[in-house]
Amino acid sequence: MDRRTWLIGTAATMALTAAPAFAAKKYDPGASDTEIKVGNTNPYSGPASAYGLIGKTIDAYFKKVNDDGGVNGRKITFISYDDAYSPPKTVEQVRKLVESDEVLLIFQPLGTPSNTAIQKYLNGKKVPQLFVATGATKWGDPKHFPWTMGWQPNYQSEGRIYAKYILEHLPNGKIGILYQNDDYGKDYVKGLKDGLGDKAKSMIISEQPYEVADPTVDSQIINLKASGADVFFNVTTPKFAAQAIRKAGEIGWKPAHFLNNVSQSVGSVLKPAGLEHAKGIFSSYYLKDATDPQWKDDKGYKDWVAFMDKYFPDGDKTSSFTVYGYSVAQTLVQVLKQCGDELTRANVMKQAANLKNLELPMLLPGIKINTGPNDFFPIEQMQMQRFNGERWEPFGPVMEGAIGS
Amino acid sequence: MRRTALLLAALAVALALPLFLKNFTLFQLTLVMVYAVAILGLNLLTGFNGQFSLGHSAFYAIGAYTAAILMDKFDLPYPLTLPAAGAACLVVGFLFGLPALRLEGLYLALATFALAVATPQILKFSAFEDLTGGVQGITILKPDAPFGLPLSQDQWLYYFTLAVSIVMFWAASNLVSSRTGRALMAIRDNPLAARSMGVDTALYKSLAFGVSALYTGVAGALGAIVIQFVAPDSFTFFLAVSFFVGLVVGGVGWIPGALFGGLFILFVPNWAEHISKGLAWAVYGIILILLIYIMPSGAAGFVRAVTAKLQRRAS
Amino acid sequence: MELFLNQLLAGLATGGIYAAIALAIVMIYQAIDHLNFAQGEMAMFSTFIAWQLLQWGVPYWATFFLTIAVSFVGGIAIERIVFKPLKNAPVLSHIVVFIALFSVFNSLAGFIWDYSIKSFPSPFGGLHQVGMIAVTLLLLVGLYVFFQYTRIGLAMRAAAANPESARLVGVRVGWMVALGWGMAAAIGAVAGMMIAPVVFLEPNMMLSILLYGFAGAVVGGLTSPGGAVVGGFSVGILENLAGTYVPYVGSELKLTIALVLIVAVLVVKPSGLFGRRAVVRV
Fold first, then answer.
1. Residue-level pLDDT at A47
2. I want to staple A224 with a disulfide (CB 3.0 to 4.6 A). Which of A25, A176, B229, C140 is the partner?
3. Mind listing the pLDDT tens digit for each residue in C133-146?
4. Which among A53, A213, A243 has CB closest to C208?
């Protein structure tokens, strides 16, 4: 076993009361003495295919885990299918994973509509739907859906964090919003509005939606500038974020700019948009940005680079998706370690809901993963940051999202 | 005579399948039948009336949403949602067929394509959100087998869909061989001659649109029940393109072709993914091109050629 | 008023994108009497080739012309390899092959260059959108001259409109079709290299642009390069103004409104604003 990973693993497990190793071995479908089968769907094709990078990173990380000896001596078999971001296809592929490939659990299926489509099925079958790749708020509802759990901070919490900041520092701001017209965009907007409370109506003066199918968002940016807004809440995916930042810069609109962290990657959003246009943007995040020079001597970062070089050399190191995939895969490995020899679906959920102060190498310092039987929101902390034209500068305290905890 | 025997044999196999197959495979076959009915609808329009559509995902969506809303908001039993979905689509299709009368070939293709592209946007529209669930869609419950039949949900839905499909296919083949069907085909083959023989071209063409939409809408309703979920992302223009591919691969103007089309659009993408994950759609494209090389007129042409050969040998 | 002007200008700029791809659509339509659904993906693929050349350090203008040449040859190759054997297949089967090509190019590009966005340089610097419109107009003039005044252009139109008669008067119909494919691919490459600096390069970048391009070409008339360019600009402007000024529904249903208007134009003028009405012989 590679000593370094062993150390990380041990450090993370140390404080925890893992399932006793001497307990009798217990298996559900998909687990055996030698293997743990993990199922997944990702959009490797279609309009959302940029996210497919997450699935590929997870796959690469499990290869590394297996090369290092696996989890408690068992190799992870990662079966990931393409659902093209189409809910009916997700249903078909997930049923294939559960009924034909017989996986132990479904891990990180991506997209709110896709996860909604399979939630009832998986809960009915009592198969874990673990660490879903969406920031909708509804995934942390153990009362009704005890087999479903999210991972990342939810979009609404992030919206509230910005609202809090705006109320404190820009109480007279006139807010203009650009948002993607789907569940993700609307969740952010809802979070912001809830956070602003009574002042939402008077402060928000323009809301401009865009469709994923729109070629550009230039028209929307012009409208926002014309509305007289001096606070810009930018809820866009990477391509549109880059377009919006550039267009705002080009037409000389200089609002206080709040960018959702879906698109905070320096390398794949801010650089294409033009670093000069991106200077001064606010965001908040929970992971380390791999293109940020401040991490270049950080051990967690260096390990990540070593992993990427060896196991995913074609992977895009400037994309936040590779960091995301790496970290979420580490979270699952931790859960599986805690399961010990009791690899049942029930125990997987039990251990997933028993993560205590887990720190991951690519989480921002001070951010910890915590779950409990009634807390199905693993990451709830974020830190505000400001882009200085070169890198993100974190400021202020690590903040808790106000939802779900 | 031989045809009847063949059909009966096929029916016997279809009825017996749930005894041997896993629930998951049954679920896939159910989807195949759903897609087959949708493609059949498209075939009635394109194959028998010569009108072109790249927008049938819109009718499929209307059918699916009609069913989902009726079940979710009005607690209508699921079998009753099918006629409702069909009726809604008949009306919408007929109305859409009216302006479409003025358009031919490529222009009609573009107009229908535009319909397919606009559909998800309209489904998300916030004014209808109370009804449609907006971007979140609607989750519905999967029906259990009635009368305490000892069937799993998947088995029951398979039989239910099978029964609906048989009725739909039977009705389609009757329609095609009826007076109306002959009028539709006359319009396809020679609109001018049809008109001079006194066929009301405008009425029949709009009607063809309506009936075609009805079929696809019923399929959409079935699809919603089987998948248990509708959302705008389920009905993008990729679905319309898939139907179109299914139509051509199965054979334009040949009713059983729709079944081949359904099999193709469900299984071949999975197969392509199995061959190469990274290049799945490239593999799919190449399979499609090779298929058109081998059978330029789809399964229809192929089956015809084979039966012709067999008959020649027999005689 | 300032807002109106700004939206108009932005609409012109996006319209330039649609106009550029609409020209490629008209080109292929003149050559094969069909729309090629893979046109946008071919243009995207050409642009990736250009990007790759730039990454390897080839200077911009060398890349520009090299990419056009490669795309031209590639277009001819596609016709010779894929479509020539299918000469006698039904029209609908051809369309399925277009769809197949669409899948192949999209998937290949994602496989080779992955799906994250890439910035693509512009030779015009800050004045890119003006430069793009100029290039589009240049292409338009070139195409117009080609179709109206050159023997080969006339022969190509004849071959598409009436292959049998064209063959009788000595036009090599097969090669005309191949040439049309080559030229459409080359124009697509230019369009791609002009569009990528605006929308960023990624495998799905042409998905919606192609639809708008179709709309522009059809509104203007598929037989008229000038009409296609006017159509492309109109769609761009229309879309922006609908999104800005149609109250309540405008911002959410901007695409839908634009599409409804296009269909309305077609219903009134079925062969587009500037297209020739095809006369059907009975």
1. 78
2. A176
3. 999 999 999 988 98
4. A213
Chain B contacts of C18, Cβ < 8 Å?
Answer: none
Verify that A71 and A187 share a domain, yes or no: no
DSSP letter for each residue of B215-269: HHHHHHHHHHHHH-EE-GGGGSHHHHHHHHHHHHHH-TT-TTHHHHHHHHHHHHH
Q: Chain C: which residues have CB within 8 Å of chain A?
A: 2-3, 6-7, 10-11, 13-14, 17, 106-107, 110, 114-119, 198-200, 202-204, 207-209, 211-212, 239-240, 243-244, 251-252, 254-255
Answer yes or no: is C73 within a domain.
Answer: yes
Report the amino acid identity of residue B186.
A
The whole-angstrom separation of Cα A219 and Cα A217 is 6
Q: Are A258 and A283 in contact (CB under 8 A)?
A: yes
Burial B261-280 (b: 16+ CB within 10 A, else e): bbbbbbebbbebbeeebbbb
pLDDT at B251 over 80: yes
Rounded CA-CA distance A343/A327 in Å is 22
A201 and A267 in a single domain? The answer is yes
Provide the token pair at A141: 């509802």
- Examine the domain organization and report whether A177 and A237 are in the same domain: yes
Q: Does C270 touch chain B (CB under 8 A)?
A: yes
* Helical ranges in chain C per DSSP H: 2-32, 39-55, 60-78, 91-113, 128-149, 151-161, 163-168, 173-199, 207-220, 225-245, 254-268
* Check: complex ipTM more than 0.85: yes
Are residue A390 and residue A245 in the same domain, yes or no? Answer: yes
Contacts of A122 by beta carbon, 8 Å cutoff, 6+ apart: A94, A98, A106, A128, A129, A147, A148
Domain that holds residue A255: 155-285+383-400
Which two structure tokens, joined as six digits, stand for A311?
Answer: 């196991």
Residues A15 and A130 in one domain: yes
In Å, how far is A64's CA from the nearest CA of chain C?
Answer: 22
What proportion of chain A, given as a percentage, has pLDDT over 70? 93
Choose among B31, B233, B273: nearest Cβ to A87.
B233
Question: Which amino acid, B308?
Answer: A
Look at residue B307 in the predicted model and tell me its pLDDT: 82
Beta-strand relationship, B229-230 and A282-285: unpaired
- Shared domain for A353 and A367, answered yes or no, is yes
Using an 8 Å Cβ cutoff, are B42 and B247 in contact? yes
Nearest-CA distance from A261 to chain C in Å? Answer: 16
CA distance A183 to chain B (A): 5
C10 contact residues in A (CB cutoff 8 A): 218-219, 222
CA angle A63, B282, C87 (to 5 degrees): 165
- Compare CB distances from C255 to A50, A211, A238 and report the shortest one's residue: A211
Contact B117 A213 (CB under 8 A): yes
For residue C225, what are the domain limits? 2-268
How far is residue B113's CA from residue A160's CA, in Å, rounded to a whole number? Answer: 40
Give the pLDDT band of residue A11 (cuts 50, 70, 90). very low
Q: What is the mean pLDDT of chain C?
A: 87
> pTM for this structure?
0.88
In 3D space, the residue among B144, B48, A223, A8 whose CA is nearest the CA of residue C241 turns out to be: A223
List chains adjacent to chain C, taking adjacency as at least 3 C-beta pairs closer than 8 Å: A, B
A121 — pLDDT class (breaks 50, 70, 90): very high
Asked if B102 has any chain C CB less than 8 Å from its own CB, the reply is yes
Residues of C with CB below 8 A from B280's CB? 107
pLDDT digits (tens, 9 = 90+) for B271-296: 898 888 888 899 999 999 998 888 88
Rounded to a whole number, what is the distance in Å from the CA of A245 to chain C's nearest CA? 12
A97 DSSP β-pair partners: none
Tokens of A199: 């002042």
